[in-house]
Fold this protein.
Amino acid sequence: MRVSSLVTYPVKGCAGSTLHSAHVSATGLEHDRAFMIVDSDWAFRSQRSDPVLAVVRCSVTDGSLTLTHASTGSVTVPVDRDSEARDITMFRAPMRGIDQGDEVAGWLTEVIEEPSRLVAAPHDLGRITDGIAPGSAQFADSSAVHILSTASLAGLNSRLDVSLPMDRFRPNIVVDGWDDPHREDEVREVGIGSARLTYTKLAIRCAVTTVEQTTGVRTGPEPLRTLGDYRRGRQKGVAFGSKFSVLQDGTVTVGDELRVESWGASEL
């Protein structure tokens, strides 16, 4: 089993950035969900309500964040993670975020066509995630790292009339080499490169999986309808992929082997 792809998502809900190699810290791959878009009530936005975010591309370089959209061009702002944070909410839970200024807020408002601002996770966010092995994360839905195998996607696509690409599920680490689907459900502790991860929970899927990631358009009931036939977990919703917290910081590179240290029964 080897890493076939690495993706980080600097701005929650926006397009991912593919990496050849990534540093993995307690909060996941570098820059992953370090930023989040909020509405006029300072509540988070995502593709659930704003599918257009899928086609907003982002990159972080030399202390600056650049956002790009085909119709509105680009905006580049210096990253501020040290100013005073303000109260925000994500899934109605209280959090803190540092506002990134009026320029990027105006740009996002034009793209989304509703009042929007961009916030960054403060260095001292101190968020504790849930699951079997609680860890940390910035603005990810739950745990720091999402792993999904090509075998699991192949198993789903064998049931669909039209095959879906991996990006519909927005994993951080894509794994190739398992013959059977959903082996990631059974991994409990694993070394990848110089990092070590531990399982926290199954990845419960939402309406984001119905958004075509190259167009930002919601396409219909799939894959949730089909996943509901065979991947309905004990938690509410359907499961596809697994979430992990970070036991040991390190570097992960495409081609790295997965060294599974312990296995467990699937929670499905």
